[in-house]
Amino acid sequence: MSAERANNWDAIVIGGGAAGLFCAGVAGQLGQKVLVLDHAEVLGEKIRISGGGRCNFTNMHSGPANFLSLNPNFVKSALSKFKPKDFIELVKSYNIPFHEKHKGQLFCDVSAKQIVDMLFAECAKGGVVIKNPVTVESIHQLDQTDGVGALWQVVTNQGIQTTKAIVMATGGLPVPAIGATDFALDIAKQLNLPIVEVRPALVPLSFTSDEFANLSELSGLSVPVKVSSGQKGQRYGVCYFDEDLLLTHKGLSGPAILQGSSYWHEGEVIQINWLNDVDCDELFNDDANRLKLTENILGIVFPQRLAKAFAEQKNLLGRKWAEVGKKDRQALKDLLTRWSVKPAGTLGWKKAEVMLGGVDTKALDGQTMMSKQHPGLYFIGECVDVTGHLGGHNFQWAWASGFACAQSLARK
Length: 412
Ligand SMILES: Cc1cc2nc3c(=O)[nH]c(=O)nc-3n(C[C@H](O)[C@H](O)[C@H](O)COP(=O)(O)OP(=O)(O)OC[C@H]3O[C@@H](n4cnc5c(N)ncnc54)[C@H](O)[C@@H]3O)c2cc1C
Prior knowledge:
This is Flavoprotein, HI0933 family. Keywords: FAD, Flavoprotein. The protein is α+β, with helices and mostly antiparallel strands. The chain has helices spanning 3-6, 18-29, 45-49, 75-81, 84-93, 113-125, 183-190, 209-212, 254-261, 280-285, 294-301, 304-313, 326-337, 393-411; strands at residues 8-14, 34-37, 56-59, 67-68, 98-102, 105-108, 129-131, 136-141, 152-156, 159-168, 195-201, 205-206, 222-229, 239-247, 251-253, 270-273, 339-341, 345-346, 354-359, 377-379, 387-388. Strands 1, 2, 7, 8, 9, 10 and 20 form a 7-stranded mixed beta sheet that branches. Helix 2 runs parallel beside helix 6, helix 2 (18-29) runs parallel beside helix 14 (393-411) and helix 11 (294-301) packs across helix 12.
């Protein structure tokens, strides 16, 4: 076999994370000769740290409504071809124990590492070759008449590889400390593919001291709230989430805020209903509460420290509810049911879980993830302008987009 033939791959997957490893395994098992290249010393790091080390690997209810993209219809085809139940079957086949934590979110009972090991095992079954750490320097589209039938060349610090297809699976920018880059976007730009502007999402929000006032002292408290974020006419409109909010010394976090952050833009307010499902009028009009101190009424539904902070915020600390005037009552109710607050910013890429934006889906075929302009070039996973809600949807997108791509590779 000639040297050119020896490294003439059916597909080279650049990025051995969730989408890349899964895609490589499926394609390999469909008979493709696949090489995975990654610049990291250790692969699958994001999976390993995900879900607090337990990896929320899918969501039983994952569907198109759980994704943000300039083209919300783009996800439909891939999501319908590889569903949460398909990944669950795979996990079960490896006897990995898991449980539903909340609203369809499935987590490993033991460790996220089991998902990484499963992906490696799937790659091994498919005869996939994995090389890391390798620096990919450039990719080039070759003339089809070059004699070896290869369409693409990948230049690395360890030599040149030729391949019929390239799969870009280098993820997004969150957590640069574990090797996140925007390499897929660089390649897309070089090839004149459109990019939807990127920003951190599923990320805690920070506040100025004015906005945050006495709440910053309550770091560590978590309460269920209703949050709305975003604006009509903005890229993704308005969202409403019913989740827990966590007070931190830097600002607000917890699932409610992380979800809201994906819809939030600089300068906008977010609105929080601290009372969640508690009926405000029922609480304050209850005759049994009339003679109670305001903070004690609030203490019925909130942790004591938060109850005090709310009463203090409206100068009602130590005042019996019966003695509080109409205007002050209304001010407190407004604070509790529609606290409008303008975040100063997000905690950025270091603390974000995902990247919003990415390679514009209008440049890709939703059935296959292949570039419409450059046959043989695919983009999968987080580098595509598809961002899931919190709760296992981002991994489901990694699996589904990887699967659609692998099927297409095998058909070629
Ligand atoms: C802290 C944290 C917790 C999370 N928890 C969850 C969760 O529980 N559930 C969920 O659904 N989602 C979760 N996510 C999101 C999820 O991890 C990502 O959506 C998912 O990993 C994206 O898969 P991917 O394959 O596109 O990218 P990644 O998994 O990030 O893989 C990208 C790979 O590309 C490699 N790479 C990058 N640049 C280059 C380059 N220039 N050359 C070569 N290789 C390169 C990287 O080393 C990496 O191996 C979490 C994210 C974070 C940060």
